[in-house]
């Protein structure tokens, strides 16, 4: 077990939004394995309880896009544990359509789900993180750097998270709070599994989910999707003293996808 980062060796307190599934659940397990006190937030109790039973994390049902809900959750954390050291803003999703097919309600939902969730919970936590010299880790996406087809809300939201990361780092790092973002590529989460299933249902040459993952990642240098635990390790690094001189950064964890020169793929597929 890794010793906590604080000078007095107290267990660190880590809050993770979207902690009931996927990357959030993996981050909860990663921090808990280091002996940290982990709090997982989400809107659905059942998945939170499942992660809590597996990791020992403390579950709180909360909507991190809502000011009152976020403030109440952070207040409960501080009342229960006495301090707050790390915030992982992982909640996200929504926005899977092109602009002309995105109505006002869907647009607001995508922005709330991907950006407001992070802003609102960070605002509620900042004073406590200042007091502890803590960290914020924003979970953006490769979609925060590039645009995929028919995902306008998700793309804009994840881009905005990087801007939020930079703004928070600029304003609050002088006060002792480091803020960084991680941009995963394809990760084997329930959301990605659903996208692979849909892809397989529309592609004549794709038989199942595994074939879909193989097809989607064939031009990624590592030629596979990430496991949630791999992204959790990056989150753990950014939300610890091991990254003590890093703030305002965007760390890409995508198997090398972002280094590929797309216009040259035709040459490779032609065997040249």
UniProtKB/TrEMBL annotation:
Organism this protein belongs to: Brevibacterium linens ATCC 9172
InterPro entries given in the database record: NAD(P)-bd_dom_sf, Sc_DH/Rdtase_CS, SDR_fam
Entry annotated with the keyword Glycosyltransferase: no
Coiled-coil regions listed: none
Protein name: NAD(P)-dependent dehydrogenase, short-chain alcohol dehydrogenase family
Domain of life: Bacteria
PANTHER family: DEHYDROGENASES, SHORT CHAIN, ESTRADIOL 17-BETA-DEHYDROGENASE 8-RELATED
Annotated family: Belongs to the short-chain dehydrogenases/reductases (SDR) family.
Keywords tagged on the record: Oxidoreductase
A GO MF term: oxidoreductase activity
CDD domains noted in UniProt: SDR_c
Pfam families: adh_short_C2
């Amino acid at each position: 077990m890794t010793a906590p980062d604080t000078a007095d060796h107290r267990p660190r307190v880590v809050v993770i939004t979207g902690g009931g599934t996927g990357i959030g659940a993996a981050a909860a397990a990663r921090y808990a394995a280091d002996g940290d006190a982990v709090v997982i937030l989400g809107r659905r109790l059942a998945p939170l309880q499942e992660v809590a039973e597996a990791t020992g994390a403390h579950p709180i049902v909360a909507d991190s896009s809502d000011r009152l809900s976020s403030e109440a959750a952070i207040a409960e954390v501080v009342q229960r544990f006495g301090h707050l050291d790390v915030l992982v803003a992982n909640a996200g999703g929504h926005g899977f359509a092109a602009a002309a097919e995105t109505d006002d309600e869907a647009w607001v939902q995508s922005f709330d789900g991907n950006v407001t969730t992070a802003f609102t919970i960070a605002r509620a936590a900042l004073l406590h993180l200042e007091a502890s010299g803590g960290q914020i880790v924003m979970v953006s996406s490769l979609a925060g750097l590039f645009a995929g087809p028919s995902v306008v809300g998700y793309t804009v939201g994840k881009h905005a998270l990087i801007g939020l990361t930079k703004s928070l780092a600029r304003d609050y790092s002088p006060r002792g709070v480091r803020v960084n973002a991680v941009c995963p590529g394809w990760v084997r989460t329930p959301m990605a599994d659903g996208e692979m299933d849909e892809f397989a249902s529309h592609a004549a040459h794709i038989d199942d989910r595994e074939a879909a993952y193989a097809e989607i990642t064939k031009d990624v240098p590592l030629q596979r999707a990430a496991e949630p635990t791999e992204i959790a390790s990056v989150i753990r690094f950014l939300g610890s003293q091991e990254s003590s001189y890093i703030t305002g950064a965007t760390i890409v964890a995508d198997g090398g996808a972002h280094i590929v020169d797309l216009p040259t793929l035709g040459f490779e597929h032609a065997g040249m």
